Amino acid sequence: MEQYSSPLDGIFQALADPTRRSVLARLGRGPASISDLAEPFDMALPSFMKHIHFLEGSGLIRTEKQGRVRTCTIEKSRFAAIEAWMSEQRALWEGRTDRLEQFVISAENKEK
């Protein structure tokens, strides 16, 4: 689990904000310019750019500037780290609940 600590901290911190999750949801449909991404949010562009920089810093998106337009693209490989961690946690908890179920069934059978 230590292998995930540092990158996952940044990823989950990035995902903790609803604006950043909305940006990622929009980028899930394809690349978009900063101005297109900022349009639905009622905030100044410098404030919105802080979210973009945070997402870029966590590695969830990358940006590319062509002329005066900066385009954002989702970085799918970073989501693989989340999926691996979630799968590990799911397996751990499924194992625990399976053992609990066996314990309860065994206890019920002893009472009979």
UniProtKB/TrEMBL annotation:
It comes from Ensifer canadensis. Residues 1-94 form the HTH arsR-type domain. This is Metalloregulator ArsR/SmtB family transcription factor. GO terms for molecular function: DNA-binding transcription factor activity. PROSITE patterns: HTH_ARSR_2.
